[in-house]
Amino acid sequence: MAEKKHEWYVLRAISGKEAKVKEVLDAAIRNTDLGKYVSEVLIPTEKVYVTRSGKKVAKDRTLFSGYVFVKCILTGEVQYELRNTSNVIDFLRGRAKNSEPESLRESEVMNMLGAADALNDSPESVDEVYCEGEAVKVTDGPFSGFSGVIKEVSGDKQKLKVEVKIFGRPTDLELETSQVERE
Fold this sequence. Notes:
This protein is an alpha+beta fold. It has helices at 18-31, 76-83, 106-121; strands at 7-13, 38-42, 45-52, 55-62, 67-72, 88-91, 135-138, 147-153, 159-166, 169-176, 180-182.
């Protein structure tokens, strides 16, 4: 019989519980026979910088919220074990009803891993992407507490021109993305 190879599959998990799913699966891989079939559990993350109490703090943010990537040989009992892990909804499947879980193509996996590595290698990632006309609140600096509207987003997406009302008059401020939050 031909040896099956490990392929990447996607588990749908409860949003925000991806790390817990990974923790449970890693423990099962170490402590049970599941390790023979499952070789890797992955949650792609990116490092973002947020301002808390006036200081920039690095934080990991999940790239694909609600999804856990598993490299495994998918047999009946492995599929059952993975699907019945706590906080897992099901496998990501094809369009047909009751279809089998579809493995990811190698190019999709390389793009996903490459994107995650590129984001983690960059010195600072953009906290959030803002658009012109969006309402924001200033959270840091001398104008902390003021609300305004974004008038311009700089090319590198790190600086914003925000119009706030000071004493009833519109005033433009140039702020970093880390100094504002959406209202």
